[in-house]
Amino acid sequence: MDTKVVDTKRRSDDPARNPDPITKAPGAHPVGTGVGAAIGGVAVGAGAVVAGAVMGSAAGPVGTAVGAAVGAVAGGLVGKGVAEGLNPTIEESYWRNNYRSRPYVEANGSYDDYGPAYRFGWESTRRYSGVSFDEAEPELRRDWDDVRGESSLDWERAQPATREAWERVAPKRRD
């Protein structure tokens, strides 16, 4: 009895049978696409990976692996921010270190309350690119309750922090 063997597996050397998963163009390979993305990510976050691995080395081989993984994630986030024209890590650090000196911060105000307002300000500049804070403010007011997280600030108390963070980063954006 003759049995015909049919190869149902995709072959990476057959472009017609291996289309790009997004564009459907022939010849793309998911591994190649992933490798390209990884190379780009490594180029941006290599310093963070190395720093994380070095810091983790104090805890031995497992610490090195964990440190490298944490560094890669941090490097990716920094790379994303740089591509957007700002560095969210720098913004977070700036506001954490300077929020107490702002006139609108209440005497017992914590960064846990004001941090989300600052983040909302700097992140919103991308969504409202080319628009002034005053023009975007009605929508920001409407969205505050959805993005505030654990902050106890209502919009009237969060608005000055959101505005200040917006105005700090809006000129830096390269959208």
Explain what the structure shows.
The protein has about 180 residues and is mainly alpha-helical. It has two domains: about 15-85, no CATH class; about 90-170. It is built from six helices and no strands. The chain has helices spanning about 30-55, 60-85, 90-100, 110-125, 135-145, 155-170. Helix 1 packs across helix 2 and helix 4 crosses helix 6. The radius of gyration is 23 Å and the shape is globular. The termini are far apart. The model is unreliable at about 5-55 and about 75-85 (pLDDT under 50).
Summarize the structure.
The protein is an all-alpha fold and 175 residues long. The protein contains six helices and no strands.
* Fraction of residues in H or I helices: 55-70%
Largest sheet: none
Proportion in β-strands:
under 5%
Structural class: mainly alpha
Straight-line N-to-C gap: 67 Å
The structural domain count equals 2
Task: Report the radius of gyration as a whole number of Å.
Answer: 23 Å
Helix tally equals: 6
| Mean pLDDT over the residues | 72
Shape: globular
- Uncertain runs are 6-55, 76-83
Question: What are the salient characteristics of this protein?
Answer:
about 180 residues; single chain; 6 helices; mainly alpha; 2 domains
